[in-house]
Amino acid sequence: MPIRFTTAGESHGRGLVGVLEGVPAGLPLAAEAVNAELQRRMGGYGRGARMKIESDQIEWLAGVRAGETLGSPIAMLIWNRDWEHWRDVMAPEADAPGETRRRQVTRPRPGHADLAGALKYDREDARDILERASARETAARVACGAVSKVLLAHFGIEIGSHVVELGGIAAAARLPLPTPLNEAADASPVRCLDPAAEQEMIARIDAAKAAGDTLGGVVEVVASGVPVGLGSHVSWDRKLDGRLAQAIMSIPAVKGVELGLGFEAARRRGSEVHDEILPGFARATNRSGGTEGGMTTGEALVLRAAMKPISTLMSPLKTVDLATGAAAQAQSERSDVTAVPALGVIAEAMVALVLAQAMVEKFGGDALSEMKRNVEGYLAQVRARLPRRGGAAS
């Protein structure tokens, strides 16, 4: 079975659930590995009060026994501690006659799912939309991605990220990137590798908070150790770069994604874009970001995600009240000034899920031991294609 996942839960409901299918049996797995990723997601300068309330940890519901996966669906639960303050608002039971729910949302926020969702699903209270559309849902994605990271690590694949731009402040390029990448990035309150840019980003966040505004930015995700040949050229929906783009674009507030040079490649000549092939099939550069023809090249996978400013503003924009049709100021929900540092962690999870899916598709195996044998056999086949000394192919 291919790896696939789904999530359930609302931002202020009882909790969030992540269900991950297709992970082979026999993968050593501890809750600590998942909880560490959840804690990383909660960090970052510019986060709001919600992160001071929550302390995200998982409870296993299914799929793990005696510290190993069973091959069956893995189910994880993350309780929402803030539920205690929202019981009457989010209760699933019907209201008594004449009762009105607290905290109804009839003034949709520009930039959020509020209005389009309320019209599509014919809801009078946009809370029915925004509770699910909230980025809180990504906690369950990070949990599923953390399991995928554990699987990928058994094959030497490591995924990290860092902030390259926040609030219009661009970080200076740092090459080569530090190893391990996350250890260096997580040491920064904005997950930026450029100390000078970090201070400017923090100042921008403080200024935006004082103005009741929000900020966006760009993160870069790097996956090293990825074998050549994941994905396929044969059909549009099997191309790995397309699948990565869809996964990243599904993250709330992400409005752009690029691999390698991305849009810059459109501005250069071909001789300045393509990666020359060296003896041993290595590449002189990695401008393509680790993919060609919808398949991995064996070089590091490098992609960037652009996040717009969060749509909840403490100085609200103009909107229309759904109840009256009159002009109004948009609703203000508790929110972050920026979630760009957290975006990197969420994007890592989505990349991990896509790569784990591609690995299982390529190599199969109901058990981790079987999958390892299949990978070893494939890598031996690839090595056998390398020209022998003197130029004769094996």
Structure description:
By secondary structure, the chain is α+β, with helices and mostly antiparallel strands. The chain has one domain (4-378): Chorismate synthase AroC (Chorismate synthase, AroC fold). 31% of the residues lie in helices and 18% in strands. The chain has helices at residues 31-42, 50-53, 87-90, 114-120, 127-133, 138-153, 181-185, 195-210, 240-249, 340-363, 368-384, and strands at residues 4-8, 15-21, 58-62, 64-65, 68-69, 74-79, 158-166, 169-170, 217-224, 254-259, 291-292, 295-296, 301-307, 318-320, 327-329. Strands 8-7-9-13-10 form a 5-stranded antiparallel β-sheet. Strand 11 (291-292) and strand 12 (295-296) form a beta hairpin. Helix 1 crosses helix 6 (138-153). The protein is globular and about 85 Å long. The model has no long low-confidence stretch (mean pLDDT 95).
Provide a quick synopsis of the model.
The protein is of the alpha+beta class and about 400 residues long. About 30% of the residues lie in helices and about 20% in strands.
